[in-house]
Amino acid sequence: MKRRIMIKYLTILIPFVFLYINSYSQTEEWIVPKEKKEVVSTFNFTDENIKSGESLYQKNCLSCHGNPTKGNFAPLQPSPGDPASEKFQNQSDGSMFYKITEGRVLMPQFKNILSEKERWEVVAFIRSFNKNYVQPALAKIDEFKGDAVNIEIIFDKENRQLIAKAIGTVKEKIEPVKKAEMVLFAKRYFGNMQIDESKRTNEEGMAFFRLPEELPGNDSGYVEFIVRLNESSFGDIQKTALIHAGLPKNMEKLTDQRAMWNITRKAPVWLLISYFGGVLFVWSFIVYILLQLYKLRKIGSEVTNNE
Amino acid sequence: MSEIKNEYIKLDKSAEQITTDLMRPVNLSIGFKAWMAFLIISLAVCIYAYTIQLNIGLGVTGLRDYVSWGMYIANFVFFVAASLIGMLIGAVLGLIGIKWITPLVRIAEIIAVAFAAVAGLVIISDMGRPERLPYVLMYGRIQSPILWDVTVVTTYLVMSLLLYFLPLIPDLAIGKDKLQGVPKIHKIIYNILSLNWVGSEEQIKIIHKSVRILLILIIPVAFAIHTVTSWLFAVTPRAGWDSTIFGPYFLSGAFVAGSAAVIIAMFFFQKNYKLKDYITDFHFDKMGKLLFLVSIVYFYFNLNEFLVPGYKLKQADAIHLQALFNGNWAKLFWATQIFGLILPLILLLFRKMRKAFPILIISIFVIAGAWLKRYIIVVPTQEHPYLPIQNVPDYFMGYTPTLIETAITAASIILVLIIITILSKFFPVIPIWETVHENKTDQKS
Amino acid sequence: MNEQSEGKNKNNRRQFLKNLGLIGTGAVAGGAAIYSGYRFEKSKDESGERIRVLTADNKLVEVDKSALKEITLDITELQKRGREGLPGHRWVMVIDLSRCRNARKCMEACQGAHQLRAEQHHINVLQMQDSPTTAPYYMPKPCQHCDNPPCVSVCPVDATFKRADGIVLIDNERCIGCRFCIAACPYSARVFNWFDPKDAELHKDQLYDVELNVPQKKGTISKCLFSADRLRVGKMPYCVSACPNGVYYFGDENEDAVTNGTTKETFRLSKLLRDNAGHLLMEELGTKPRVYYLPPKNRLFEFPDKNILDNEHHT
Hints:
- By secondary structure, chain A is an alpha+beta fold.
- Chain A is built from 8 helices and 8 strands; from the N terminus they run αααααααββββββββα.
- Chain C folds into 2 domains: 2-73; 88-294, Alpha-Beta Plaits (2-Layer Sandwich).
- In chain C, strands 13-12-11-4-15-14 form a 6-stranded mixed beta sheet. A 3-stranded antiparallel beta sheet of chain C has the order 1-2-3.
- The longest helix of chain C has 29 residues, at 2-30.
- Chain C starts with a helix and ends in a 21-residue tail after the last strand.
């Protein structure tokens, strides 16, 4: 009964979900929250920033947006557009940064792929195509700006969670980094895989990440974790730790089993026996007959000689 | 002159007469020379076609990535099929004690040797890198049906050669004095190959024993050679090939092709070698009945092969059968089935149709049908892979053999004819010793 | 202090990767020497006599410069490592059918990397329609790198083989050109070099690398290799990296992770497949493919035709 009601609700709900997705993908305008529009960079765009922004752009953006000013962007829907175009350049730095960070439909979310600094560098590169661009005043750096920040990573085996604690040094006084965004990744072969959601540190500078049950590690079960603190005032800070929190990786070779597709040495035993057995059986008779022919010839020559 | 007795022809001739009769065709007549010259010139032209293929690549054929096996493979299957008749007539009929086969055994064996030997060459012509043939021995994977095929075809060829050669030994000893108008080398070969045959009891025993072993052993080997050839297709997960009855289906088809080949050869030997007394209408009649028997078995397997998937019409099978039954393959398919199988079956029921000339015509239809049937088994399946053929030139979707390909295939057939001609012209085509022997024992009894 | 050294290490790593690239290019240009196994980097210390070396198992060690020997790989070494594969990995690909718009960047990248002719496809974007009442969609189709590969089973000379890490490779130096594998493959994933390969003259002196299968050879088979050469250096396959639409994910089943080739985001493979109803292509044939497909629902594009079943070679 309960289940039926649920299904009923679901059937009502589903069209709305579709409608939502549909309208979302059809929107041409990309609305950026007002407060995000006003966000500005914490550093001045130098030539070096632009250069590293260019290489980031080529790796991550070129395939869709094409070469700026060339207009050779991919024919997608919604259109990616040329970053050097007026439409692009007319938006604020904050809007650009927001769009790169959050993504939409086909535009990927870069918040976990590029660091904050890197995202700003991409903005710097895009701005380099605008001669009239003047960088707005830098963001006021948080008073909390410290000399160094350390992230401590603790594995809470019992609750299967990872605790990351961020500590900053402010005016030679050690203090926890409060209410900062923290993201946890596990290192994988082609990139870092986010574990749990991004968290905010508490008053003690701690964030708690729930670890999934079966997370493969290396061959002895160690996982390389990366904790990143997304707090621009401290720059790009991340900490790596090798923790025994995973399953030992499956090191078994796919080619270990005996199979039809494997090499001869790994052929099914019955096949080896029947093939070689069959060949040996038949050919031993053939060899026997050849020997008989030799004998036949010898008999003949003896008879002739006797005569 | 002769009478039919105990299911075979009793000859009213002396041993001397029989020997002279059967050794008479062994000479280098002008007709033979002209025929060989014709064959060799044609072969040379066709081999030139092969050199083009070697230089440019397999792209000179009509084959492409989707239909990647064509005329060569169909021809290969046909050759393997035709070669099986040596086993059927020599071994199966011989071992159950049928007597009328005596004058036909060697013909069947010649056909077996010729087709089996050239089958290997046909496969080489289909290889992208023929110079790497030794790799099959060096790096062979025993899980591959190709390796099984190479193994059994070689074994079968060796055994067929032995089965051809062993009964020939006494004939060589008997015939070497009768050789007339042949080069000296011919006599020397006879001398060497007769292995000092004196006809002693011990020697006869050796021959009898060896032949018997070979006859028994060649049955499973022959079954293996064609079953394995059918597995080249049946082990793949493709509609039209993915069949469990491919082994017996191919095997029964092989006997049809082989019987027809023997009948055609019989006709030409009878006419050209003046063997009317030895290969008679009685033999044609018997062969006609054999052809009917194997054809009806083959018909039965055809019924199974097409009716069962045709009943269920699983998607991929349905597409394949549609192409065969009323698609672009329909004309060829029905022509092959009707003129190569069903009509011959009906005609062979009549005694008149089993006489020498009518049965020759029937056999030519049967053998042509047999060849085309292999073609129909090999090609259409590949035209309908599971996934659509896209983003390639249009001609990738079908297959039309090119002239070069046809010439190379013709080369293999010419080569078979050359081997048959040489074997039947250099050595007596009907066993002398056995014919004399059988005649004698019969006279005694 | 801690992050200081961390940062420096990162810098060094970037630097030596750059060096590695340079050396690699140099080696290829040189023609014979292909450099691998040990990647090294000149230490920034003034002395210049000591050198930092990253070993194959990712340990940074410092050795005397004179003790260093550059390893060049000849064809035997390339063959050996190509046949062994990368230990501890089981590569998988996930293809999201809802995102493919037929941009064909994957096909271009692949054909470029493997010196293929225009009609030769290691990966082919097909227009599919399952039944007349369902919508058509685009389906990129690489080799499925089956765990029960029919093509490998039938190969008579071990020219095509399955590696410990799951990739089905083809060895040009071994292939005899019998095309049994083409006949056996239900996915039509293999192509043959019917003629001299593209730009054969240009590439004829190139050292043959079984993981890239170039230079192509006349009379031999070619097929998708999951870009085994790129996996070795930590990069995703050519097609995966070239896709502008986020269609491809590539990764390691043993790590339970796949990374999107466009966004570089990494996901848990098991969750991705569970959440999106991943499936295998013609699983019923028992081939056990290593390529998963996510269904073509909620597609992000309009297919040009409503029905393609009539004008196609399907029937």
